Amino acid sequence: MINFISNIWHSILFAVFSAADFLFEVIKLILYAGTVVIIFYFLFYKKNAKARISKKSKSSFPLQKDRHGLKSVSNNKKDNTFKDNHDITGNGIKVDISKQKGKFGAHPAHIDFLKNKESVCQLRWVNIPFNPNQNIGDYFFPYGCEFSNEMQCDIKLFHPKEKSHYYCLSDMLFFDIETTGLSGSGVYVFLCSMGYFKSNNFVIEQYFMEDLSDESFMLEKAVNKMKTFPIWVSFNGKSFDINRLSDRLAIHRIRVNLDMPHIDLLYPSRRQWKKHLSDCKLSTIEKDILKIYRKNDVLGKDIPEIYFDYINGNKVNLIYQIFNHNAQDVLTLPILLIVINTILNKKKLKTF
Length: 352
Description:
Low-confidence stretches: 49-107, 132-138, 347-352
CATH topology of the largest domain: Nucleotidyltransferase, domain 5
Largest sheet: 8 strands, mixed
CATH superfamily of the largest domain: Ribonuclease H-like superfamily/Ribonuclease H
Order of helices and strands: HHEEEEEHEEEEEHEHEHHHH
Number of helices: 9
Distance between the termini: 101 Å
Strand order of the largest sheet: 1-4-5-10-9-8-11-12
Radius of gyration: 28 Å
Structural class: alpha+beta
Helix content: 25-40%
CATH class of the largest domain: Alpha Beta
Number of domains: 2
Number of strands: 12
Strand content: 15-25%
């Protein structure tokens, strides 16, 4: 009887250990297969993601077309996004720089390709006219027609080290960048946008890096353009944009002096409206002060993810949201500059 029970016990143990050994072998096989799949993905699939974009995607998204021989393309599918409420109020002072109501449109953006032997940089540009009778396009310049008068006079701004400076709008470059993160050596600058006045137009140029390996070439082209203007205007550019540009230029061993006369509109905005607004973000100032309302605008925190999806060949059309978001940031800068300049001159402030 004892031997019978012992044999049964040994049989049960043998079956349990055999099952455990089989299960262990199955798990090892799954791990090996998973490792092979991951290696294959990173070596082949992810590397060639762009090559697998469908012909339909390429035809509907100009930036993904074959770049050889392509000079320019247009995008005119975006809707208008702003309302006609242009009254501006700042700390009890009503500033009206838009006597002529209405919407101000732009022609669709165009794309050129700047090339060298190894890299390609996409240059997206658009001329935004002051003429209110223009057909509405991608962007809005709600105070555009008034700038034709401002172009004839100097913009008076006050600096802490000197009594005053006078600048002409045509000498100013309005700029903004988009990055893959906020800080760190692994943060890339993938879009550098700038705007400037030319005749009766406000011109926006956007230098875009389609591939991470093109950053050096893109930055060199963008910064060389920026250096052609004697004074720069930004929003939080002294703390963020210039530092990110300096870091990336240093990594690529490009020696460029970015110590230019620079008007950062964040600081006068804080002094003027910090007691009246929930925060002094550019989006808040647009809504509460400039009465500019964006529709379906991309969130800043989503921009890096959208860009990485783009370079991996996923959801490529979403990159237009970044272009439009960034271009409107640049468009807001001259409007905000005129408003602050008007308020400061009326209040006779001696600090900027």
